[in-house]
Design brief:
Order of helices and strands of chain A: HHHHHHHHHH
Shape of chain A: globular
Structural class of chain C: alpha/beta
CATH topology of one domain in chain A: MetI-like fold
Chains: A mainly alpha (239), B alpha/beta (242), C alpha/beta (271)
Largest sheet of chain A: none
CATH architecture of the largest domain in chain C: 3-Layer(aba) Sandwich
Structural class of chain A: mainly alpha
Largest sheet of chain C: 10 strands, mixed
Helix content of chain C: 40-55%
Shape of chain C: globular
Oligomer: heterotrimer
Distance between the termini of chain C: 60 Å
Radius of gyration of chain A: 21 Å
Strand content of chain A: under 5%
Number of strands of chain C: 12
CATH architecture of one domain in chain A: Orthogonal Bundle
Number of helices of chain A: 10
CATH topology of the largest domain in chain C: D-Maltodextrin-Binding Protein, domain 2
Number of helices of chain C: 11
Number of domains of chain C: 2
CATH superfamily of one domain in chain A: MetI-like
CATH class of one domain in chain A: Mainly Alpha
Chain lengths: 239, 242, 271
């Protein structure tokens, strides 16, 4: 086993040093697909989550429970469902999206939207519980309160987005099925890792995994640096 | 016992009751707030002070009647509330104030001016660019007062506004509240501090178990013979009920 | 800051790429994982692109899934190796004809020590011995062309592996690579195509034990999806590929694909 990990590290550094243009393309596609999915999920999911936390209507608890259940959606199931939607024999077949990066974005958006919405809902609900009355007293309705609490919790929301991004860029089931792992077109890091594993090239597969983790780590480090630079509002008086 | 006056009530509650589940927080309260009055609500914890404030402010559903009078121009009565611990957004002092002006319906053209006036009024103009949550407890409460003052309320509700503050901050905040009162704002303030009630209020209301037991002008409240429980409370021997 | 710019450009590209990519000439070909993993496409498709300017996008699935994808109209043509299933596909009207392209062969791999003593050139005898001794055998069990062939070989030995699996038979429901991974770590026997085996890097103790039986040859066919069933199919460029791969030019490219000096596939298109 030791040899295996040693080989993987060696493979990982070799890959990074060589900066094979195909590997770079695969990496960029991973980042673009998952990034786009998270951007769309953020736009809709944060609004939906904040609204669900604040609005009062019959069936709210049932809807919340349903949303939390979708946190457990298996990526393969999402992939199958989206495949059947986008297949030429399916309802949206005429869009011709199957086996394209766009289909992968759709599938990953479906996968991470519940994550963003459910986690946002929890954040906003906690903030609302303590402070909703003061917001209402100042004249804020549901929409204004949702927007203000999202603004108030923006640092925590970054973590929510990073969670969603991690889930998206690390999944293989959905993008494999709707993308088809076509070389040069819909091949991403995770599907490449799956391919190399099934070919028996385990050190290379693990090496690619390390490269993927390295890239995501670099992204997180960059975000942390940005947060520090804009961290004027990070200091708070303990209550 | 209740106070009497000839002027019209700004807000009036008639036989108002508020229930949270099986618990009766307010029971058949009759209460009128008139212009220029400064009312102190006193009583033990759980007596219904905060609920009465919220009921007057229109923030809780109640059984009974709540009547609010429009102002001279026919607009809805302008109200604001200050809480024991103000909720400040993770933004600058200035932005917090601008948001309050936005929520309060103040036209965009007037907001910057009003924000500057309000911050000057409470002595926080030099803090305008700092994150609001970095301010001291007393400064945060002054910001809350600025937020309220900025929307020119005719009625200001205060829920134990100085309970969390150190003595010097307490004095600063009390001074501001007193000034607002002298400018003509009607005040309804709950407090544990009877000295504060004496200093700031024109009228003192004593609550117990959700019922309004005593309602007298300040001078009379502290000199007249009161019902036994109220008298005990004033003497400071009332046990705290949670 | 430049990175954000790059990311935004990437996202924009993604958004616009849909219509843009549509203008590139490409066809979608459903094929099998074992064919892709043999490395043939990396060798073959650039030659076709140079000759025709058409990009071939290969979606690699199991044979059954590849044919199903074509039935749904999600591929323009199919390139698999299960003649019976392909003939059925044509009979159902999803293609107008099947053209023979090439064949490769299957081999049985197993532990070097060969405890069941199956080494030789007779597949039926070898499988009979494996069943008789209850030796561990890993099957793909995934409805693929390889799996279908494997079941036929067991039938040659008089065994119905699907209905009454021999002792030691394990079906993994997985592709060729994973099945070999399992066989390698468990010291079991397995049936694999030569192409996947030559590319497989995790051999452990496994070696080729049975090969050369003519019944082990594995023929490939190409079928263009019938535009009468799916009007949107890019029938013309797909037909260009089908014509090219059976032409002398395409056939010689196939013959030229070698691993370690050994050809993997043997062109056999009929005129």
């Amino acid at each position: 086993m030791n040899g295996g990990f040693g080989d993987s590290l060696h493979a990982a550094f070799g890959l990074l040093a060589a900066a094979d243009p195909r590997l770079v393309d695969v990496l960029l596609l991973s980042l673009a697909v998952s990034g786009a999915a998270c951007a769309i999920a953020a736009a809709f999911g944060m609004a939906a989550g904040a609204w669900l936390a604040i609005a009062r209507f019959p069936g709210q608890r049932a809807l919340t429970a349903l949303l939390n259940t979708m946190l457990a959606l298996p990526p393969v199931v999402v992939g199958l469902a989206v495949y059947l939607l986008l297949s030429r024999s399916g309802p949206l077949g005429s869009l011709g999206l199957l086996f394209t990066p766009q289909a992968m974005v759709v599938a990953q958006t479906v996968l991470v939207l519940p994550i963003v919405a459910a986690l946002t809902r929890q954040l906003v609900a906690d903030a609302w519980r303590g402070n909703g009355e003061q917001l209402r007293s100042m004249g804020a309705g549901v929409l204004a309160s949702a927007a203000l609490l999202l603004l108030h919790e923006r640092l925590a929301l970054v973590t929510v987005l990073l969670t969603a991004f991690g889930r998206a860029i690390g999944e293989v089931g959905a993008v494999m099925i709707v993308g088809g792992n076509i070389e040069g077109v819909t091949r991403v890091m995770t599907t490449t890792i799956a391919l190399e594993t099934s070919k028996g090239d385990l050190p290379l597969a693990l090496g690619l995994g390390l490269v993927l983790l390295g890239v995501v780590f670099a992204l997180n480090a960059a975000i942390a640096l940005l947060q520090r630079r804009h961290g004027r509002h990070a200091e708070e008086r303990p209550r | 016992m209740s106070a009497m006056s000839a002027t019209t009530a700004l807000i009036a509650l008639g036989q108002a009751s508020v229930h949270f589940g099986p618990h009766a927080a307010l029971q058949r309260i009759d209460f009128e707030l008139r212009a220029g009055e400064r009312v102190a609500l006193v009583g033990a914890n759980g007596s219904g002070k905060t609920t009465l404030l919220r009921a007057l402010h229109g923030q809780v559903p109640l059984v009974g009647t709540r009547t609010v009078t429009n102002d001279a121009q026919g607009r809805a009565l302008a109200q604001a509330m200050v809480f024991q611990r103000p909720f400040l957004l993770r933004l600058s002092v200035w932005r917090n104030l601008m948001l309050a002006l936005w929520l309060g319906g103040v036209p965009r053209s007037q907001r910057a001016t009003r924000a500057r006036e309000s911050l000057t009024r409470v002595g926080l103009l030099d803090q305008a660019g700092r994150p609001a949550r970095v301010l001291s407890g007393g400064q945060q409460q002054r910001l809350a007062l600025a937020r309220a003052w900025a929307v020119r309320p005719q009625v200001l509700f205060l829920d134990e506004p100085t309970a969390s503050l150190d003595p010097s901050a307490k004095r600063e905040v009390e001074t501001l509240i007193a000034e607002f009162g002298r400018e003509g704002m009607a005040l309804v303030m709950s407090t544990h501090n009877l000295g504060q009630a004496k200093r700031l209020a024109t009228r003192v209301v004593y609550l117990e178990g959700g019922r309004l037991i005593v309602d007298l002008p300040t001078a009379e409240f502290f000199t007249q013979a009161l019902p036994e429980a109220a008298a005990l409370f004033v003497k400071g021997e009332m046990s705290w009920k949670e | 800051m430049r990175w954000t710019g790059r990311l935004w450009t990437g996202l924009l590209w993604l958004a616009l790429a849909g219509p843009a990519l549509a203008q590139e000439r490409f066809i979608v070909m459903a094929s099998t994982t074992s064919t892709e993993q043999s490395g043939l496409f990396a060798h073959l498709l650039p030659a076709f692109k140079a000759a025709s300017g058409i990009d071939v996008r290969v979606v690699a699935l199991g044979t059954g899934q590849a044919l199903d994808a074509a039935r749904r109209g999600d591929a323009d043509l199919v390139f698999v190796h299960d003649t019976a299933a392909e003939r059925k596909f044509v009979a159902e009207g999803f293609a107008t004809e099947r053209r023979a392209v090439m064949y490769n062969d299957f081999v049985v791999v197993g532990p070097k020590a060969d405890p069941a003593a199956v080494k030789g050139h007779d597949i039926a005898a070898a499988l009979a011995k494996l069943a008789g001794q209850g030796a561990p055998f890993v099957s793909r069990g995934d409805k693929s062309g390889t799996h279908a062939a494997e079941l036929r070989f067991w039938q040659l030995a008089g065994i119905d592996a699907a209905a009454a699996a021999p002792k030691g038979y394990r079906a993994c429901g997985c592709g060729m690579g994973p099945a070999l991974n399992i066989a390698s770590s468990a010291g079991a026997y397995a049936l694999t195509d030569r192409g996947t085996w030559l590319n497989f890097k995790n051999r452990g103790d496994l070696v080729i034990l049975v090969e050369g039986d003519s019944r082990l040859f594995n023929p490939y066919g190409v079928m263009v999806v019938n535009p009468a069933r799916h009007p949107h199919v890019k029938a013309v460029p797909a037909q260009t590929f089908a014509d090219w791969i059976v032409s002398p030019a395409g056939q010689s490219v196939i013959a030229g694909y070698k691993i370690g000096g050994q050809p993997l596939f043997f062109p056999n298109a009929t005129r």
